[in-house]
Write a structure and sequence with these properties.
This protein is an alpha/beta fold. Among the domains are: about 100 residues, 4-hydroxy-3-methylbut-2-enyl diphosphate reductase, catalytic domain (Cobalt-precorrin-4 Transmethylase, domain 1), CATH 3.40.1010; about 70 residues, Nucleic acid-binding proteins (OB fold (Dihydrolipoamide Acetyltransferase, E2P)), CATH 2.40.50; about 60 residues, Nucleic acid-binding proteins (OB fold (Dihydrolipoamide Acetyltransferase, E2P)); about 70 residues, Beta Barrel (OB fold (Dihydrolipoamide Acetyltransferase, E2P)), CATH 2.40.50; about 90 residues, OB fold (Dihydrolipoamide Acetyltransferase, E2P) (Beta Barrel). Helix content is about 30%, strand content about 30%. The protein is built from 17 helices and 32 strands. It has a 5-stranded mixed barrel. A hairpin with a 4-residue loop joins strand 26 and strand 27. Helix 4 packs parallel to helix 5 and helix 8 packs parallel to helix 9. The radius of gyration is 38 Å and the shape is elongated.
Length: about 650
Amino acid sequence: MKIMVAKSAGFCFGVNRAVQMVHTLLDEGKQVCTLGPIIHNPQTLRRFEQRGVQIVSRPDEVPDQTTLVIRSHGVAENVFNEIENRAIECCDATCPFVQKIHRIVAAESKAGKTILIAGDASHPEVEGIIGYCRSRCFVFKNADELQNILNQASFGREESICVVSQTTFRVNEWENCLKIIKRVYTNALVFDTICNATAIRQSEATELSRQCDAMIVIGGRQSSNTAKLFELCKKNCAAYLVESADELPLSALSRVGCIGITAGASTPASIIKEVFDTMSELNQGAGPKEDNTEGSFEEMLEESLKTLNTDEKVHGVVVGVTPSEVLVDVGRKQAGYVPASELSADPNAKPEDLVKVGDELDLLIMRTNDQEGTIMLSKRRFDAGKGWEKVAAAEEDQTVLDGVVTEIIKGGLIAVTNGVRVFVPASQATASRSDPIEDLLKKEVKFRIIEVNRGRKRAVGSIRSVLKDERKALAEKFWETAEVGKQYTGKVKSLTSYGAFVDLGGIDGMIHISELSWTRIKHPSEVVNVGDEVTVYIKGLDQEKGKISLGYKKPEDNPWVILEREYPIGSEVEVKIVGITTFGAFAQVIPGIDGLIHISQIADHRIEKPQDVLQINDVVKVKIIDIDFDKHRVSLSIRALLEEEEEPAGGETEE
């Protein structure tokens, strides 16, 4: 009996990432629940259940003090909103390839395009994709359903269409559907979002089933991608879908000459090994036969999981660019291709923005498939290998590195330098812990390497370290030239009840609340806000204590200066009554200055109390009869104006 194991069998990147995330949380001692089964594998789910992992169907079912994990299928946008509104601690294990689809349909549907989704409408991944569509969307699982949608839908050939697929959609069915779409909608925007690992797994299973007398497909019966593998295999030979070695039809398989083994993306390596060992024992029990398994399972599994061979570097020329991959001629009989995920360390980068036909690239060979005549290549890993030594050396000599922030993740951010991803903890990402790290996304930053794990090729960086040194240098320069009265332009950094702190460029100064306005204010936010650019001047310096007092009020805005300039004694003005006492009424002359109308100056006759004539908020005409600039007092009179009006009338009577 010959046993052949598919090289691509087993965990895909997204599922492995989700499972590892749950393991990590459990190892940290946290209570964990998952939104739906984290994996379509009953054995793994049982092990998680034994460790206390609960499965919930909705966010409102999450117990208190429990971390919720979003599985690799992803969820609709409104689910994330509910999680945030309920303040649930959440770890998002959505596969990056699925997140890419979410971004595509969100953007294209917002632009008004009708979204067509190739997939199973009841599958969690597709339900999540639909949750990001803001326009009409239709789901089809084969070419016939697509044709029915196009025949019955209320849109014409000029409709703006965007087409995506479930990551595990059958490759051959996708091709059939594309033929229909391209025939009907010549302007359709098509994104091939089938996961590259899925395409390889399906292609390899198809080819292997053509060479074998029987195929064993290992995986959960609820797994969509496992079901598709089973469908593909049974077209070419006898196929058996099993969840574990216990379900193997040994009597039927004992009569088979060549058996192939493949597994879905949710199948752990331990179960694949168990099936392989069981088949090997069956093979040995049948009597001495030639061992055609071509090496141990461990060797084959290691080969299938191998991500790169650092000895195999190639130089190629780009011959084609698609949204999902770059085609490269590497001078061999096999066709070379670089998956979008292996082109750059930036997960959001688009192939068409990075390379063009004719570009020359240095690459690493990740996997060679002689049956299909293809070579999977990686530019990202070549760049990372080349840049790693620079990063490692930077930790020793504390060289400042330049990089670009490509992701904001839980606990910090990822900055890429020389093709190497460097983790920067949130505590080391900004000058102050209160500064939002989200503002750094897509920005160029400078950082030092503070920790290196050479075995795992992991590096930790600090942006704060560089910012601290830069601020120190700027502060030293500031003190060299600072002097009382000198003017600066700065940015409001924070507010307190007693003033505003301003970043002068490397050093902070404070504007006391009394210096913010000539009028009385209750809080600095009445005048300035965080982020405002302000012009200030130095009122006081204390280099020993590092304190800088700033002035903000302009002398020319001093209301007493304005009063002296524009309202001399004898001026007639309209004023607003702002206060009443037993001896008179106070009125606002101009903002910041109130004057007193003494009770004797309110009317041209004796009154018992000011309220007999005036009320709060009354607007009246007065005459400024006296100003004491030293004591900041203004005397006003209504009576003086009334007497002036009476004098001309009295004179005419006497004549």
